Structures are given as C-alpha cells and as structure tokens.
C-alpha cells in the first residue's frame, strides 16, 4: 500500500523526530548549529552554571559577524561592548571545543553566507542559529529557522529542540521573470501580497517554474525573507541546481558519499498529491522591480508606483500604520517612487551580499558614478565573496563609481557596528528589514534588489533599473 | 533551576498596562553578555524618578510583581525575564501576558499567574501593606484576609516549575533516545555528518 503523500517539510520533520509527546510536541534532532557573538554569551553562561558540555561540537560552527567593523579588519574593535562580545565568542568556543572562524580569516563572513559557501549547509538537514534569518538555508531544501538564546543553549546541550509542527503553505510562482527583475523582487512581491504576518505559524515551500529557474544565490535571497512574511522557515526543493552548487564544497560529502547523498536528496521533494494547509499563486510576468516605502517589509510597491495615501487602505489599523510610517519616512502621498532622493546606499547583508548580487550591482555601476553627496557602501557577505569579486575586478568597478568597498559583516543591515545611516537620512538598501531605526536611529530605509540599489547609487534617487540598462 | 513550590512575600503593586519589553529592559542593555546584572537596567525610564515604586525600602528585592494587562509585549528579547529575575522577581501576577514573553519567562523558571482584573486590583490593594502567598501546587493565590484566588496553568509548565526542571533537564532524560537516533543516522546516512 502506498504511503500518504508528504510535503518536503513533512519528510524532513519525520526524518528528524527523536520522540513525540502526547500533546504533539516533538523532540527534533538538529544537524547543524551556526552560532555568532550576539545571541550566544548567555547560552554558554547557562551551560557553565549547570556544568553541561556541548553535546556535538562537531555539528557547531561559530563566526563573528554582527558587531565586526567593515574596515581596518586587523585592528582592535573600538566599541568595548562589541569587542567584548567578539572576544567572548572565541573564548567560549575554545572552552567548549567548537570550531571558530576568526574575524581576520578569509573564511569569515555573515553566518548565513558562510554556511552555504563552505558546504556546512546541505539539503535535507535541520539547521538552526540564534538569528531569525536562518531561513536563508531553506534554499537547499533544509528546514532552517532562527531560535532564541534559551534554545541555543538547549541545542548546545542536547543537539535537539522541543517543537510543535508548523502548518504548511505553498507559494507558487509560475512563468518567466521580466528583464531587470530578480529573486529579491519575487520575495518582496510575495510579502506585499501575503502581508508581514501572512505566513505566521507556517513553513513556506516556494514552488513553480520561476523558482526552479533561480540560481542557489537567488533561492537564498528568496528564503532569507520568509521570516519577513511571518513564516518560521522557507524551503525550496533540492534539484540539479542544488547538487551542482553543493558538489566539491569543503565540508560537503565527497566521492561515493556524495552520490549516496544525492540519491537521498532526490527522495525529498514534495510528493505528487501532498496537501498544503494554504496555497498562494503569483505570476512571474506580473512582478516588476519592487521598492519599500514604509516601515514594514509588506509596505512594497512596483517602482512604477507612487507613495500611497493612507486613506486608500481599507482597514482602520492599516490607515493609522501607513500614516505613522509616512511620517517617519518623511514622504508625501502621491510622490512617484522614482522621484525619491537618497543620500545613502547599502549593498550587503545576508539577503544580497553573495557574488551574484555584487555582479548585478556592478553591471549597473560600470562606467557610471555616484553623484556628490551620495554615500554608497558595498559590503561583501564573506571573505570568499570578497576575494572572488576582486578576482573578477568588481571592486574596481565599485571604487571607480565612487562606492566604498569594505570588509565582510552584517554592517548597516542592523547597525550594531559603526556602519549607520544618519538620522533623518534615506538609504536604498539590499537588506531585509525597513523597521524604524533598524539602520541607525531615525534612519529611513527603502528595501530593493542589488541592481535597483546600484541604480539609486548612480542617480541619487530611487530609479527603475530597467531604464538605465535599456 | 530552583523548584517553585509556595512563595510568600512582598508584592510590588505596579499595575501598569501594556508594559513592553523596552520598558522592562531598554535596547541599550542588549550588548550585555550575561543574564545576571541586568536588574540595574530594568524599568530604567521609570526608575529615573528617585521615588519610583521599585526602589522603596520595602519593595526593593521583592519576589512578586503585580502588573497590568498585556505585560511583556513587544520584542522577543529574553533579556526581559533575565532582568526581572535579577531584580529578585520569581512571580508576576497580571490579567494577561504577551505570548513570547510568557514562553521566555517560563524557560527561566519564572511563574506567571493570570487572574481577572478585579482580583488583580484586590491584590494591588493588599500588597500595599501585606504579603501575598502563591501556592503553585494548589494553584491558588491567598492573602492574610481570606482572599483565595484560583488560577490556571499548563500542566506541563507546572510540572517543570515545581520540579525545578528546565527544558534542557527534561530533554536530558531522553538522552537514550537521542543516542539511539544519532547512531541510526550515522549508520544509515553517514554522508550527513560534516566533513572536517
Ligand atoms: S546581515 Fe542583517 S539580517 Fe543578516 S544576519 Fe546580519 S544582521 Fe541579521
């Protein structure tokens, strides 16, 4: 008798269930644990107080990224609190036998960029990190999600988590993307459609021909922002694109082991006839380059749109939120998005700081120059991305355009390090959150793709990249 | 964690509604690297006033806090229960609590008691002069004046609190299952173990 058709999510869940309690809570085994300096100090403190060791140091990998400065990499960190967190991560890793990538190593980078590029991230795994954008790793067909500090401690001590299964949601994007439209635009368009809370309680599986056509970089951008749509995690089923990307990476299986792994990974995609709790459909051809205008990632519009009038929203709560957002953003209803000037551009973050993102930005920047008064920061996602970009000459294109070429880290994505957007100033940003104060107190963020951010950089205003590249 | 059984002590009649985690512990304390020591930053804005309710001779270090509706809303920072615990609180009584805060408090061995507004108001009154008793086993809050307010609690949370079990401690009881799972996996799918 055939077994009940299952989704990718259900297959991974079943394969990782250690035990199940009567109330449906499951003890789930965790295959990979990424840690960074901000959300771990208290977890290690807890282990020490209880006299507990780390159960599987070999499944744990540490890297400092949130606090690290993006210039003067060899120098001591100036901010004492940041310096302390970074030093403590190393100390804790030494004490508990965990591999730690030094801030000065070529392998250092944003935790969600280094995992995939080193082959630490593989299909079919459970992957956690004390950071909500862990969803990024779902691009490989892994169940990957962010956890709190108590849960970090729980994973360090037991290599498991107590979890209740999530509901499933299929987001299907069919068709071909238009010229100048990227994975970032897909993910923003989805959040615009489903809302910032639309995925709450769900794990999303992205499906359809437009998703299949994306590179691994694009899939990572897509899954990265699943959390911004309220979902716990996002998934893309593993396929040839995935296997080709994984093959030969340092920490990935080799030779015959790799072939066995691929054979297993091929069993993971959602079965024909498996049911999702919710389904959403988008037509790829309808998606234009997206820009956010407010202070929630759901506040997005096509670049051809204008700043909305708060009174145009149906619900009272939305009207109030939009009015508050526009006040914070310093925007007037009716202003075409393409007429909004920017003083800052940030090309970076775990959403868009992989090599493809930098190539897309460089293609726009090439032979152009940022106008006076526009500060542009390009922050590669890792030391490896940086080296690769330099070998392709992308750094020269950026510096010739008047952009700053910096060292890897989270940087202005959350401004825990010195890279901040000044109060009241506007930033075209490739990051994932346009929350109030996210890029610095009073900073006004407009989310967009790397190509769109580069277009804003060379014109000094939010610009439809398709016009520049025609 | 210290088991929670019966607690009798001074309760701070705070009572404010919609206290968010930013009020409990402002963002500037998030670069801290310990769970302890956050008490000094707790309720920072309120405690700027030297006559605030938390720092009176009677209330400083009290084990019980009485708050208003929707206590602990806002960000998911676990620093909020850490800060409360560091001030000495082991139990918070309020008409309702925000969801994430509630989970975080429980994970840190803190008992949250939900009671209807009138009962909370009555306890606020009593707390000004007298001690309050929380009996977790019998799920009841009492005062020296015959008040007797029963409360609900998730049986699993109650079990953990009463036995001083943190989630890690509980999971450790399943170590045998985890060992077996790991062995099975390494045998069936060695390719999933990381290459070093
Ligand atoms: S780049 Fe931004 S979103 Fe990504 S891990 Fe760093 S701070 Fe978080």
From TrEMBL, chain A:
Name this polypeptide is given: 3-isopropylmalate dehydratase large subunit
PROSITE patterns: ACONITASE_1 (PS00450), ACONITASE_2 (PS01244)
Cofactor binding, note field: Binds 1 [4Fe-4S] cluster per subunit.
GO molecular function, one term: 3-isopropylmalate dehydratase activity
PANTHER family noted in UniProt: 3-ISOPROPYLMALATE DEHYDRATASE, HOMOACONITASE, MITOCHONDRIAL-RELATED
Pathway(s): Amino-acid biosynthesis; L-leucine biosynthesis; L-leucine from 3-methyl-2-oxobutanoate: step 2/4
Source organism per UniProt: Pacificimonas flava
Quaternary structure note: Heterodimer of LeuC and LeuD.
InterPro entries with a match to the protein in the record: 3-IsopropMal_deHydase_lsu, Acnase/IPM_dHydase_lsu_aba_1/3, Acoase/IPM_deHydtase_lsu_aba, Aconitase_4Fe-4S_BS, Aconitase_4Fe-4S_dom, IPM_dehydratase_rel_enz, IPMI_cat
Cofactor: [4Fe-4S] cluster
Function: Catalyzes the isomerization between 2-isopropylmalate and 3-isopropylmalate, via the formation of 2-isopropylmaleate.
Keywords, alphabetical: 4Fe-4S, Amino-acid biosynthesis, Branched-chain amino acid biosynthesis, Iron, Iron-sulfur, Leucine biosynthesis, Lyase, Metal-binding
Chain sites annotated for binding [4Fe-4S] cluster: 350, 410, 413
Residue ranges that the Swiss-Prot or TrEMBL entry lists as coiled coil: none
Catalytic activity of the protein: (2R,3S)-3-isopropylmalate = (2S)-2-isopropylmalate
Family: Belongs to the aconitase/IPM isomerase family. LeuC type 1 subfamily.
Single GO BP term: L-leucine biosynthetic process
EC number: 4.2.1.33
Domain Aconitase/3-isopropylmalate dehydratase large subunit alpha/beta/alpha: 10-460
Automatic annotation (TrEMBL), chain B:
Presence of the UniProt keyword Magnesium in the record: no
Catalytic activity: (2R,3S)-3-isopropylmalate = (2S)-2-isopropylmalate
InterPro entries reported in the protein's UniProt record: 3-IsopropMal_deHydase_ssu (IPR004431), Aconitase/3IPM_dehydase_swvl (IPR015928), AconitaseA/IPMdHydase_ssu_swvl (IPR000573), IPMI_Swivel (IPR033940), LeuD (IPR050075)
UniProt pathway annotation: Amino-acid biosynthesis; L-leucine biosynthesis; L-leucine from 3-methyl-2-oxobutanoate: step 2/4
A Pfam short name: Aconitase_C
UniProt GO BP: L-leucine biosynthetic process
Keyword annotations: Amino-acid biosynthesis, Branched-chain amino acid biosynthesis, Leucine biosynthesis, Lyase
Enzyme class: lyase
GO CC annotation terms, alphabetical: 3-isopropylmalate dehydratase complex
E.C. numbers: 4.2.1.33
Signal sequence extent: none
Top-rank taxon: Bacteria
GO MF annotations in UniProt: 3-isopropylmalate dehydratase activity
Keyword Amino-acid biosynthesis carried by entry: yes
Domain Aconitase A/isopropylmalate dehydratase small subunit swivel: 1-118
UniProt-listed PANTHER family: 3-ISOPROPYLMALATE DEHYDRATASE SMALL SUBUNIT, 3-ISOPROPYLMALATE DEHYDRATASE SMALL SUBUNIT 2-RELATED-RELATED
Assembly and binders: Heterodimer of LeuC and LeuD.
Entry's family note: Belongs to the LeuD family. LeuD type 1 subfamily.
Stated role: Catalyzes the isomerization between 2-isopropylmalate and 3-isopropylmalate, via the formation of 2-isopropylmaleate.
Protein name: 3-isopropylmalate dehydratase small subunit
Gene this protein is translated from: leuD
